[in-house]
Amino acid sequence: MKTLEVTTYNMHTFQSGLSCLTDLCDSGVCDTGVQEHWLATNNLTKLQNFYTEFDCLCWSAMAEK
């Protein structure tokens, strides 16, 4: 039986947390919830495109309401 490994990671800004997020992806962790990336809506592509095997659903709290 396969197990599902889920993690959650507080990046403390995208630049500060990018190396650890890359390590999580390299280690084979399947599902990682990321918060506190502090990317504006126009910069979400940085999160969407940083890792080739990474599927991303993201939004920014910094978007206008």
Task: Summarize the structure in words.
This protein has about 60 residues and is α+β, with helices and mostly antiparallel strands. The protein has one domain. Helix content is about 25%, strand content about 15%. It is built from two helices and two strands. It has a two-stranded parallel sheet with strand order 1-2. Helix 1 (about 15-25) links the parallel strand 1 and strand 2 (about 30-35). The longest helix is centred in the N-terminal third of the chain and has 13 residues, at about 15-25. The protein is elongated and about 45 Å long.
Strand content: 15-25%
Q: What percent of residues adopt helix (DSSP H or I)?
A: 25-40%
Q: Regions with pLDDT < 50 over 5+ consecutive residues?
A: none
Structural class: alpha+beta
Identify the overall geometry. elongated
**Mean pLDDT, all residues:** 87
- What order do the SSEs take from the amino end to the carboxyl end, as H and E? EHEH
Radius of gyration, in angstroms, nearest whole number = 12 Å
Count the E strands.
Answer: 2
The number of distinct structural domains comes to 1
Count of discrete alpha- or pi-helical segments spanning 4 or more residues? 2
User: Major sheet: order of its strands?
Assistant: 1-2
The main β sheet shows up as: 2 strands, parallel
Distance between the termini: 44 Å
Fold blueprint:
Layout (H helix, E strand, L loop, with lengths): L5 E5 L3 H13 L4 E5 L9 H4 L17
Parallel strand pairs: 1-2
